[in-house]
## 1
Amino acid sequence: MVAGQRILLEGTQGTGLSLHHGDYPHVTTRDTSVSGCLADAGIAPSNVRKIIMVCRTYPIRVGGPSGPMAHEVDMPEIHRRSGIPLEELEKNERPTTTNRPRRIAEFDWVQFRDSVQLNGPTDIALTFVDYFDVGNRRVFRFEQLSQETISFVEEIERISGRPVSLLSTNFNLAQRYRPEGMVTEAELEELITNCPTLYHMAERGSWDSIKQ
């Protein structure tokens, strides 16, 4: 930063696993909030321009006695709701470290409000919207999403007071939509230009598609 360079800092693990703010003893060894990440990296909060809080439509924990989750569901239920093949869900929802099937639950609105308050995001990135409807994988405009997905995004924005500026419509694909007041094309291009190892443009349409 002294040299005028920009930094993209990615946090590890979710806020619910924070040593200070999670459900002890089901936590990790550090503070996973934005303030904890900045402290670990030696970056002053006044130097931060944008904070993107990433949320899954269906939160997860590693399989086994890994801590409380509100309203757990199973993969057959996600398959029934979304239309995604059960075999695909069971293959993808396994961590690389333990290879144990993940636990999955309904969206936790209480945890979401707490995370917004704790992290103070400027934007929300919502992942796994195809878990609402597999048809979301084929859309390229916001209004083409299923009505359930659109309603969910609107509720996220209403409760958080922040825009949902990134949507993930597939396991490794994030789609960005930009109503008035959201992230500009210049800001996105700047992110891609300054962090070429993290993102590349997959294609252009009514939305910008970014593949990790």
## 2
Amino acid sequence: MNNTQMMLLIGAALLFSMLTLSSNRGIVYSTQVTYESEHVLTATQLGDAMVSEIISKAFDAATADTAITNINLLTSSASFGHNAFEVYPNYNDVDDYHRFTKKVDTPRLGVFDLYTEIAYVNELNPNQVIYTKSWMKRIKVRISHKAMPQPIIIYYFVSYY
């Protein structure tokens, strides 16, 4: 084997190793994206399930058993959260879930942390949180996992009317 053939052989081996490294990098990146996507999808499903659970409850403690038309009968935002006699999962109204935390252990991905906040919002501008009573509430569910770079946040608005 002469020097020219040796150089061609070394060049071919170098090109082959670069191609192999590039392919491996692509496979690792693809696997990582798939793994992150699975986390995001699972987190979104858990958040949607939490929202569904919350909106299945009465709008307010004052509306749990009877219809009302006087806004002053609604719970003040300072009193949001479950009462001492209310135990999860037996909450009866939306604002019982204020500052509620829950850990959900999934068989494939491990533990997700859910945190909910409930707030009154301006009926004409639902993105504006207000501290006075309103016929509209915002449900915010934050879902986090140690493998996700940032939490998923789901907003849902519920109105009494």
